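In response to the reviewer comment on reproducibility (Comment 2.3), we provide here a single inverse folding case reported in full, input and output, so that an independent group could reproduce the run without further information from us. The structure tokens appear first.
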């Protein structure tokens, strides 16, 4: 039996995932989390085999949360289930320690097989993600400006270009507005840009403008 914890801040999504898994005799949902803090509490408590993690939740989330979980419980398999289709998000998640990456659009047909594969110790990624991982290490791609951002800066970057205000980002990430402003300044400096408009244009050009939840 594969015991899993679902970490997603949308109740409807969690219920939908549980319905998908109802038909799998070898998979049991033993816990749920609505934010990064609850996900960490489950991780520290233990008693399950796989964490299904949304990439965008209030508070501690995304790549930083993956890294913390892997630091505390290195052997726990993590399957990312997210709205982000862009391969760049997947690359950072996989590099941080996630073993699988699945978009929510694909969950209906691929979720059960993804859980089984990740729980068995094998990776689950799409061909597009595999190609991006390969391209990511090629010299020609290493100098792209967004590659210079830290994981937290990249997270703030994606929220900024999606239209979130400094205050909204601060509330979502449980940071101070001053800290978010500092991240924005560093992002502009590292990417050699002068405005948010330039950041948005870059995000569109490089397919980094992924859907984000409210």
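Designed residues, in position order:
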């Amino acid at each position: 039996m594969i015991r899993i914890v679902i970490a997603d801040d949308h109740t409807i999504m969690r219920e939908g995932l549980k319905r998908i898994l109802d038909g799998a005799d070898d998979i049991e949902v033993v816990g749920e989390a609505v934010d990064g803090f609850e996900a960490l509490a489950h991780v520290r408590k233990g008693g399950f085999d796989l964490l299904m993690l949304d990439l965008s939740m209030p508070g501690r989330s995304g790549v930083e949360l993956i890294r913390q979980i892997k630091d505390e419980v290195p052997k726990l398999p993590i399957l990312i289930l997210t709205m982000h289709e862009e391969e760049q998000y997947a690359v950072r998640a996989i590099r941080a320690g996630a073993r699988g990456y699945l978009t929510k659009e694909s969950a209906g047909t691929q979720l059960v097989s993804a859980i089984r594969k990740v729980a068995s110790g094998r990776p689950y990624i799409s061909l597009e993600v595999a190609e991006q991982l390969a391209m990511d290490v090629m010299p020609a791609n290493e100098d792209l400006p967004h590659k210079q951002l830290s994981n937290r800066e990249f997270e703030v970057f994606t929220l900024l270009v999606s239209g979130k205000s400094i205050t909204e980002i601060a509330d979502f990430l449980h940071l101070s507005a001053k800290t978010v402003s500092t991240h924005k300044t560093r992002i502009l400096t590292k990417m050699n840009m002068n405005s948010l408009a330039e950041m948005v244009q870059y995000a569109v050009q490089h397919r980094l403008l992924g859907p984000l939840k409210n």
